[in-house]
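Schema walk-through. Below, the input block comes first and the output block second. Nothing else is stored per chain. Lengths vary across the set, and this one has 159 residues.
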Amino acid sequence: MALIGTIETLLAQSNAALFSKALAYLQETDLDAVFNEVTPGNNVVIELDGKNLFAIYQKYTTKSMAENKPEGHKNYIDIQYVHSGKEQILVAPTDAITKDGEYMEERDLYFVEVADPSSFVLTSGMAAILYPDDIHAPGLAVNEELGAVQKIVFKVKIN
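--- output ---
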């Protein structure tokens, strides 16, 4: 089940050491300084606990709803934090998959099609925790208004 809210809300809902480490990183780091090194298409990856926990800094323009590509992961939980901008994310359970996609093990990623996804909007300062049971299509425009987003995706390894 996806968890959505402010950093404080997410801290209250999660006891896992890696979640706490990721969320503490958000509170203690000069994120703007790191984002100064990021350009669209050239992400910055920072390891916080080796391959167990790392942060991917991204800058991009949101996509139209027609461009949504639902994705899933098997070995990592996503914590998606919007530093600036806003985006819509579609989400559906894995049992809503209508067309499977090939799993790319090296990227822990597969693309699928789903039936009847739900959606939510993340604005600056909000985050969502997405588990492997949550197929998701992030980076979508809100009300079809394209906009710039700065986002950090934390990848939390599942034991």
